[in-house]
Amino acid sequence: MESSQGIRSTVRDILKWSQTSITAYNDKQKTGQGYSTGSSLKQLSKQMSSLTPFAKPFDSGSSYGTGWVRAQLPTILGAVSCNPSFVKSMPTAGHGRNEEVIYHQGSMVDYKFSIFLNPSTLSAILVLTNSIILNDAADWVGQLILEALLDQ
């Protein structure tokens, strides 16, 4: 996989980075420090900070930081996806849950990418697609997997 800035990575690397991010995020929530002791992610609190709130329908506890969306469940996900432009209304995820999900979605020519971090379950969902379609399948699949994870 390659980002818009030319950084190359693998699924294994992204999942390792995701686990380190979740650990650092949970440590920040517990200690109030902006980083985990011994972690290489010294600026995680800035990367995942809430800088810009969303307008409706994504305004229910969701905000945008430096490429990351923080969402308080239950809420509508997919705020930075193209899917809201294709449907009348987006589904609400996480019914009956009160926890935060942090996610990022991206696309380049010929691919879509979606990652959901769930600090309370210590899990990361990573979906990569490599086809041109008329929706963001990576977003839909990621949301479905997140719902299955939350229903356990």
Task: Please report the total strand number as a whole number.
Answer: 8
What's the number of helices?
A: 3
| Fraction in beta strands | 15-25%
Quote the distance from N terminus to C terminus: 30 Å
Secondary-structure element order, as H and E? HHEEEEEEEEH
Radius of gyration: 15 Å
Assign the structural class, choosing from mainly alpha, mainly beta, alpha/beta, alpha+beta, or little secondary structure.
alpha+beta
Helical content (DSSP H or I, runs of 4+):
25-40%
Main β-sheet, spatial strand arrangement:
1-2-3-6-7-8
What general form does the structure show?
globular
Question: Can you tell me the residue ranges where pLDDT is under 50 for at least 5 consecutive residues?
Answer: none
The major beta sheet can be summarized as:
6 strands, antiparallel
Mean pLDDT: 81
Written description of the protein model:
This protein has 152 residues and is of the alpha+beta class. Helix content is 26%, strand content 24%. The protein has a six-stranded antiparallel sheet with strand order 1-2-3-6-7-8, with helices on both faces. It has a two-stranded antiparallel sheet with strand order 4-5. The termini are far apart.
Brief digest:
The chain is α+β, with helices and mostly antiparallel strands and 152 residues long.
Write the layout of secondary structure elements.
Layout: H1 11-31, H2 44-47, E1 52-53, E2 62-64, E3 69-72, E4 75-76, E5 92-93, E6 100-108, E7 111-118, E8 123-129, H3 137-150
Antiparallel strand pairs: 1-2, 2-3, 3-6, 4-5, 6-7, 7-8
